[in-house]
Write a structure and sequence with these properties.
This protein is α/β, with parallel strands linked by helices and 303 residues long. The chain has two domains: 134 residues, Rossmann fold, CATH 3.40.50; 148 residues, HUPs (Rossmann fold, 3-Layer(aba) Sandwich), CATH 3.40.50. Strands 3-2-1-4-5-12-11-6-7-10 form a ten-stranded mixed β-sheet, sandwiched between helices. The radius of gyration is 21 Å and the shape is globular.
Length: 303
């Protein structure tokens, strides 16, 4: 599932904040890492400079991956690179599809100024257009020289009981089983509901305490069945059921339990600029302090 990982770079230290995550997966899962640099023009004057930069990052990534190898494991991580010319988002998406990439890891910030990679630009276009899982890292000024070894030891997996939300489960199982990470399954119950009244107005009503308790028991039973499936693969998993607004509760709990990544499924249509994130995933991406792994529901991929 994670045999090949793609990391887009733009020459900035902020974009390189994605590398520690790729290094862990390369060292512990044996994944191949491909570093991609997309030039917007075929200017030969800068081509050699970009080539030297990306080769430097290949060697740095190999060194970082070695720190995740188990004692006595001598096999070196496989890290390669590619330089492409064209629109960055389109080239990244096309390469990921053509080369059967299992995961794209990129940051939500990059170059400073009007060419920066911000959520809503290259990173968001890639996440909206690709059918491949995407891990988005908030850079927060991380420097390559100062970056520390990343260890994924706890994954927060929000589920709402739908088949679409369960699309992330196999990806989390794969990661957690091989990285020996704990999985926290979260279901957020809505405290209110809307009633349509004549003449077409809506009124927000609070659920009764007995209704909330019934919903909680149902949610816990559902999550326990998922826990059992994780445990069969040797994954340590536990359940959290909370009451409130879904995005806010996901962000709050991720901070509270010090989650290393939030894994969520998304939905929408294919094509750059045509896939709208689910509103909850979109809110989490913009406000969370935790890296977010987006897995596209198959029902959306088929559209």
């Amino acid at each position: 599932m994670y045999q090949r990982i793609l990391v887009p770079l733009d020459g900035s230290e902020l974009a390189e904040a994605a590398l520690p995550y790729a290094e862990e997966l390369a060292g512990r899962l044996g994944s191949e890492v491909v570093l991609i640099y997309v030039c917007e023009s075929a200017d030969e004057k800068h081509h050699r400079m970009h080539e030297l930069y990306i080769q430097k990052m290949v060697e740095a990534t190999k060194r970082g991956a070695r720190r995740h190898l188990e004692k006595g494991q001598e096999k070196e991580a496989k890290v390669s690179s590619t330089l492409l010319v064209g629109n960055p988002a389109e080239q990244i998406v096309d390469y990921a599809e053509k080369e059967d990439v299992g995961l794209i890891i990129m940051v939500t910030h990059g170059r400073s100024g009007i060419r920066r990679w911000v959520l809503g630009s290259v990173a968001a276009k890639v996440a909206r257009a690709t059918t491949r899982p995407v891990a988005l890292i908030r850079a927060n000024g991380t420097s390559l020289k100062a970056r520390k070894k990343v260890t994924i030891s706890r994954v927060l997996l929000p589920l709402d009981g739908s088949k679409e939300s369960e699309a992330a489960i196999p990806h989390v199982e794969e990661l957690a089983s091989k990285l020996k990470a704990e999985v926290v399954l979260l279901h957020v119950m809505a405290p209110t509901y809307f009633v349509y009244s004549i003449p077409g107005e809506t009124v927000e009503m609070s659920f009764k305490p007995e209704d909330i308790e019934r919903f909680r028991e149902k949610a816990e039973h559902y999550l326990e069945t998922v826990v059992s499936a994780f445990q069969k693969r040797g994954v340590n998993a536990r359940v959290e059921v909370t009451l409130g607004a879904a995005a806010e509760e996901i962000i709050r709990l991720a901070d509270e339990i010090s989650a290393d990544v939030v894994a969520m499924s998304t939905h929408g249509r294919s094509g750059i600029g045509r896939w709208a994130f689910g509103s909850i995933a979109d809110k989490v991406l913009h406000a969370a302090n935790t890296p977010v792994l987006l897995v596209r529901a198959q029902s959306a991929v088929k559209k």
